[in-house]
Amino acid sequence: MLVGVCVLELRLPHADSLKDKRRVIKSLRDRVRNRYNVSVAEVDHQDHHKLATLGLAMVCGEAEPIQRVFDEIVRTLDGQVEVELLSHRVEFY
Asked: Which pTM was predicted?
């Protein structure tokens, strides 16, 4: 059994308040959860309205399916107007 963890550093250029940020992050979190069946949580920058760090987790028997899902999520986020993907990293445990 492998656990894949992906950490996404995001910038929210159009968020003018924490309320705006929460709305965008909640929508993004729900879409990613529902579409890709991964666990998602905001793990850093909770008090900064222009930045967010999301942690994603997925469990599988092999690394390749996890990597494929995380790659697709990153590609999807690259096309979003409401968030800018600053960086991402994937680790396996």
From this structure: 0.91
